[in-house]
Amino acid sequence: MDTNFQPVTQRGRRGKYRQHSPEFKRMLVELAMQPGVSVARIAREHGVNANQVFSWRKLHEAGQLVAAAPVQQSDLVPVVVAAPPQAPQGEADGAITLEIGRVRLRIEGHANAATLAQVLERVLR
């Protein structure tokens, strides 16, 4: 008897995972921890799997089911945009000034893009 095995060439896409808020998880855990309550019924009523509620309950008991940390502000570099002074005839116009901490870089005239990219890469490390 011959058997032909056909390799699977395409996989079906998995659906997106649902992301539940920490508040929602804590609410279900608190409901599920009450005496005489069915975890399966709580889970079914809220559209989640009972195993997931048990998992959240373990995290809660271990102190790992906490509210999401507040979003931290990213460090931004202050930028001041000002009109450059009028250059005398014949001189290149424009200037770039970059200040980061104690480092100050000023480029006047026409800046070579490749050189400027190298300098910025090293200064911003």
UniProtKB/TrEMBL annotation:
One Pfam family matching this protein: HTH_Tnp_1
NCBIfam families xref list: IS66_ISRel24_TnpA
Protein name stated in the entry: Transposase
Organism lineage string: Bacteria, Pseudomonadati, Pseudomonadota, Betaproteobacteria, Burkholderiales
